[in-house]
Amino acid sequence: MAHILITGGSGSIGRSLIPKLRGKGYSVSVIGRSVHKNLDVPSYTWDLQKGTLDERALKDVTHIVHLAGAGIADKPWSPARKQEIIESRVKPLQLLSETLKKRNQRIEAIISSSAVGYYGGITSEKVFTEVDAPANDFLGSTCRLWEDAVQSFKPVADREVRVRTGIVLMKSDGALPKLALPVRFGVGAAIGSGKQLMPWIHIDDMTSVYLHAIENRHMHGAYNAVSPESATQTQFIQKIGKSLKRPVFLPSVPRFLVSSVMGEMSKVITEGSRVSSQKIVDSGFEFKHIHLQEALNDLLQ
């Protein structure tokens, strides 16, 4: 039976993934900056600055799921914050792969999160697929460095999977509660043009993608983890209003106001393009939540 080590296991995706994996009978442990006793699984630590980790974390490990990373929109993008965002994603991969090499230990798979930000902070008519090149902006460069670090596992892993994640919809964490709050008070509005696409995925499907990547030995390389149904931000806000039975009257918030407050980071919410999920569907994955309205009803009602 597989033994799965999760980085970033205390995050919102990790907390949802752990019980799903344990329910399938897998052994699960976590590793991060501190011990997390509340996760009810073995917990180990690393020190990324010193380049050390508790090697007991790697005993009998067959798969590593890499979810660790500083929140992309939690703080303004100062030069120091940008460096932290990159290093929090790249350094764990480098440390883990180097430690496996030193131990002469091989694993079945490294499955790493990435993001649809790989394609950049732009709004266009293009439908992005996994063969498209990374963008040259901060989002694209971060994802490229993130995914490049996964390649360090080639000598020690039978396969590598990179999960390019869209906006993960959850009841009480992530973007959805923030988007829904003003709608609840009758002041919901799109930001910028409202025409930007919001590639999304329900948390249940998100965790199922990781389970699918663990169990499907034919999966290699990058996969977009987004629902087949796309929605503009205006449509997104309107559907939230419908789920909450609240009207949405206000015009969009002008982009320049958002940019003046958030700076370069405003791209996270003012830009977005369509992203294809066809490759992961072709791998045999079946989405449980395809339609946005149904997904929002499930989480908001």
Key terms:
301 residues; alpha/beta; globular; Rossmann fold; 8-stranded mixed beta sheet; two-stranded parallel sheet
How would you describe this protein?
This protein has a single domain (3-233, 261-300), classed as Rossmann fold (3-Layer(aba) Sandwich). Helix 1 crosses helix 5 and helix 4 packs across helix 6 (233-244). 43% of the residues are buried. Helix content is 37%, strand content 18%. It has ten helices and twelve strands. It has 301 residues and is an alpha/beta fold.
CATH superfamily: NAD(P)-binding Rossmann-like Domain
The number of strands is: 12
Order of helices and strands: EHEEEEHEEHEEHEHEHHHEHH
Uncertain residue ranges: none
**CA-atom Rg in angstroms:** 19 Å
What's the average pLDDT? 94
- Work out the count of structural domains: 1
Report how far the terminal alpha carbons are from each other: 38 Å
In short:
This protein has 301 residues and is of the alpha/beta class. The chain has 10 helices and 12 strands.
Topology summary:
Elements: E1 3-7, H1 12-23, E2 27-32, E3 43-47, E4 52-53, E5 63-66, H2 79-103, E6 107-115, E7 127-128, H3 138-150, E8 157-165, E9 167-169, H4 175-184, E10 200-202, H5 203-215, E11 221-225, H6 233-244, H7 255-262, H8 267-270, E12 274-275, H9 278-282, H10 292-300
Parallel strand pairs: 1-2, 1-5, 2-3, 5-6, 6-8, 7-12, 8-11, 9-10
Antiparallel strand pairs: 3-4
Helix pairs in contact: 1-5, 2-3, 4-6, 6-10
